[in-house]
C-alpha cells in the first residue's frame, strides 16, 4: 500500500446567490447551494458531478449528510437527534475541539460543535490544494474567555471530490497577543451508517495500542486480526496508520478513512445497554452505526502565538469489501507497499 495522500480543493466553486437554481442531475462540474433545513438551520449543499452530495450546517460546521453517486446515505443521524441549539447534534461528523470527551475543564467534546460558524469569503490558500468539484470554507473566531481563555482562529474546509470523496481540513491558529501558548486535543467523529453492526469489520489498527475508555483509559494492545462488534466498544487507538478501512459485509461496501496530522483513531459503538442511557440516541440505533474517526488525543497539540496547526481527514466510498485481509498497519505506518 502506498503512502496515503489527501488533497483539498484549490478554490471554492460556490454560488454567490443563495437562491440560485439547483444544478441538473448530472453536471460536468459541482455546485454549492445555500438553504435551510426543516428546523430552520442554515446549511450548505455541495453537489458533485456524479450526483454525490454533502450537506454542512453552519451550526457546528457539522457535515450532516454525505451521499454517493447512487444516492446512498453514508452518514448516520440518530432517530432522536435534536436540531435545536444549543444542543449538539447526534450524528453526521461533529468536530471536537479543544477537548475530547470530558478530558478538560469545559463542556464534553469542546464547544465548536455548538457554535454558529460563518462563511469564510477570503480564506488563505492551502499549499497542498488540488482541484475538486465543490467546497465551502467556514471560520470561527468567537472569543469567550469564560469558556476558553485563549484567542484563536479556526478555519474549516469541507470539500467534495470528483469521485464523491469527502475531505475535511481544519486549521487552528494561535492569535493571542500576550505571547502565550495554548494546548488542545482534537477529533473528527464521523457517525457512519452501516447495514448491521454485527457485519462490520475494521482493518488497519490490528496489533496497535489503544486506550480503553471502558476500563478508565487503560492502555491495551489489540490482539484481534480485525475489529468486529459483539458488545460495547469505546477505544482510542494511538499512533495509527494513515489509512483505515471500515468494511460493511452485508452491503458489500467499504469506507476508506485517510488522515494527516492526526495520529490517533477513535472507534465507538454504544451497544444496547448504553444506547438506552443516551437521551438523544434511539434504543436500536447502535445496530445501524459505528463511529470511526481521526483524532489527536493522547498527546496535546501546543501552539505558540502565530503558529498554525492543520489536520485533514478524507472519507472515500468503495463499492466492495476488497480491503479484507490486505491492510498491514506496520507497512501503512511506514508508507510502503
TrEMBL record:
It is an enzyme of class 5 (isomerase). It catalyses: alpha-D-glucose 6-phosphate = beta-D-glucose 6-phosphate. GO terms for cellular component: cytoplasm. Its EC number is 5.1.3.15. The keyword Isomerase applies. One of its GO terms (biological process) is carbohydrate metabolic process. Residues 10-20 have a biased composition (Low complexity). Residues 1-31 are annotated as: Disordered. PANTHER family: APOSPORY-ASSOCIATED PROTEIN C-RELATED, GLUCOSE-6-PHOSPHATE 1-EPIMERASE. Belongs to the glucose-6-phosphate 1-epimerase family. This is glucose-6-phosphate 1-epimerase. It comes from Cucumis melo. The gene is LOC103494250.
Amino acid at each position: 500500500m502506498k503512502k496515503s495522500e489527501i488533497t483539498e480543493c484549490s478554490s471554492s466553486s460556490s454560488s454567490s446567490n443563495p437562491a440560485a437554481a439547483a444544478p441538473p442531475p448530472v453536471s460536468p462540474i459541482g455546485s454549492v447551494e445555500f438553504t435551510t433545513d426543516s428546523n430552520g438551520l442554515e446549511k450548505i449543499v455541495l453537489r458533485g458531478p456524479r450526483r454525490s452530495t454533502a450537506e454542512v450546517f453552519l451550526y457546528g460546521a457539522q457535515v450532516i449528510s454525505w451521499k454517493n453517486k447512487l444516492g446512498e446515505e453514508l452518514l448516520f443521524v440518530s432517530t432522536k437527534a435534536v436540531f435545536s441549539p444549543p444542543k449538539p447534534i447526534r450524528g453526521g461528523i461533529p468536530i471536537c475541539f479543544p477537548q475530547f470527551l470530558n478530558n478538560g475543564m469545559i463542556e464534553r467534546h469542546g464547544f465548536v460543535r455548538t457554535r454558529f460558524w460563518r462563511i469564510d469569503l477570503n480564506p488563505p490558500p492551502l499549499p497542498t490544494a488540488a482541484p475538486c468539484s465543490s467546497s465551502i470554507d467556514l471560520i470561527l473566531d468567537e472569543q469567550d474567555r469564560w469558556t476558553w481563555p485563549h484567542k484563536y482562529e479556526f478555519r474549516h474546509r469541507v470539500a467534495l471530490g470528483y469521485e464523491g470523496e469527502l475531505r475535511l481540513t481544519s486549521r487552528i491558529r494561535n492569535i493571542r497577543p500576550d505571547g502565550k501558548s495554548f494546548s488542545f486535543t482534537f477529533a473528527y467523529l464521523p457517525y457512519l451508517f452501516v447495514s448491521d453492526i454485527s457485519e462490520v469489520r475494521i482493518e488497519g489498527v490490528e496489533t496497535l495500542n489503544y486506550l480503553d475508555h471502558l476500563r478508565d483509559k487503560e492502555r491495551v494492545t489489540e490482539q484481534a486480526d480485525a475489529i468486529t462488534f459483539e458488545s460495547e466498544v469505546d477505544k482510542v487507538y494511538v499512533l495509527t496508520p494513515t489509512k483505515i478501512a471500515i468494511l460493511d459485509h452485508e452491503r458489500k461496501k467499504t469506507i476508506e478513512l485517510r488522515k494527516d496530522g492526526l495520529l490517533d483513531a477513535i472507534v465507538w459503538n454504544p451497544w444496547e445497554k448504553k444506547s438506552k442511557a443516551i437521551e438523544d440516541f434511539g434504543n436500536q440505533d447502535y445496530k445501524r452505526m459505528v463511529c470511526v474517526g481521526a483524532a489527536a488525543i493522547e498527546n496535546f497539540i501546543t501552539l505558540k502565538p502565530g503558529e498554525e496547526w492543520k489536520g485533514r481527514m478524507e472519507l472515500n466510498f468503495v463499492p466492495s469489501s476488497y480491503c479484507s485481509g490486505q491492510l498491514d498497519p506496520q507497512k501503512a505506518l511506514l508508507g510502503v507497499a
